[in-house]
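pasting input
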Amino acid sequence: MLSYLKYMLSVPRKFIMTWAIAPALYFTILPLTFANESVEGLMIDTQKEAFRGMSENDTMMNFLGIDDWDNVFTLEGMVTTYFLSLFGVILVALATIVLLNKMSAKAEEDGTFEFVASLPMTRATVYLTHSVVAIFFGLFIAFTWTNIMYIPIATMELTQTLDYAPLMSATLMAGLAGVSYGVLGFALGAYTGKSSYAWGFGAGLMAIEWIANAVSGTNDLFLWIDDNISSFGAYGAPYQDGLIGGDIGLVLAKIAIFLIIGFAGFRNRSLNLR
Amino acid sequence: MIEIKNLTMRYKNGKGVGDVNIAVDNGEVKGLLGPNGAGKSTTMRSLMGFLKSSEGHLSVEGINTLENPVEAKKIIGYLPGDPQLPQNLNSKSLFKLGADMRGMSIDYAMELAEKFDLDVNLTIKELSKGNRQKAAIILSVLHKPKALILDEPTSGLDPFHQRTFFEIIDEFKKNGAAILLSSHIISEIEKISDSMAVLKDGEKIYDESYETFVNKAKEDGVELEDAFFAFYDRSDG
């Protein structure tokens, strides 16, 4: 299994490094906008006033994961609300779906999986290795982003700052939420051998739960989805409140259920070789 | 020994193979012949456990390839009909993975790479089609398997390296490996096989020694390929 895990990480190593580093550098802009009073005034206060009209549209605010217009223009608000709870989750989910597709369902379709299938491993070993990569890749990139982003916070005298431990709690929650969608994509790809199912189900559920989160105030069904099954809903406010057992439990349970479903299909089907 | 008994595997469109029986003894090379879509790759993929057959007993050296795939794959060397390898890895890393997974060293793979004039440090993306085929062939035999399942192995190889390939197969044959090798060209089978099985529309229509077929062609005074095509056209699938 270790040899195969090494293979799983070496084939897409450029992809993994790109997804770990590139968004991190981009997100470093967030703390740097609080470099000093004049940068903050230019980057934050101007934007805050320019887009103030948006604050009157609750649905738009919810789509962007924003609860409190004034709070989102603080470093804490930016990082822990719309960055981690929305874009972080979406990016982790998309990257996980792309990576796992590349190594499983898409690999079946393009033929590279035939080489893997001829190696002396059971399907359970192959699936378990893919599952480990699916979970830890998502968490790895999320933690890389926030840790690289934290470098200027820790080393520069910014006008605002963040506490490291609560930031890591928020990162874990966002990473797990993204992983839950990524794993669903991987699992359905493994169940069917078709990469389109990975996208349809993984990105599809993410879209439904994102919409449910945004419009939960308008409809009981969406409110129920957001409260009880949504990974976006489970994110909560971990920077302020810490990790909530029930929320983590929900996301972990979703990941486990999706993985079991995927394995049930993968263990005994014909490979979708071209 | 490779044994395929009563193999039936149907795709959703109804194509596939039905009730195919093929046996390859140790030290024997059996050619599996048939045009595109005859069922050669389906038979081989079913034997490897990639496709789930509805019926059949498939084994190599007495090991059921479906019930005990890990043990079976340790002693099988499999070459796909259209080998696709990860583009960004070099041949050497792939050989290392194949060898590590079976607890072997890559010495034999490197020896074969030298015979095939293959630069093992180039990535798969940098290799020509023929060189990719060489890398795939080496990957399939680097663990010195007791059974070889090779789907159109000479595809893309130049005549010089086809000869190298046949020498390698001959070496395996002398060492007692059972070899099932598919092709749609009878002259290729002629060079290496002891016997041949012919598939048509998913059913086996011939399974005898290669010599029998050659003698029949001589008696009729026709070229081997012409004799084969005439036989194939006459047969009911």
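fyi Chain A touches chain B at residues 3-4, 6-7, 10-11, 13-14, 110-112, 114-115, 117-123, 268-271, 273-274 (CB under 8 Å).
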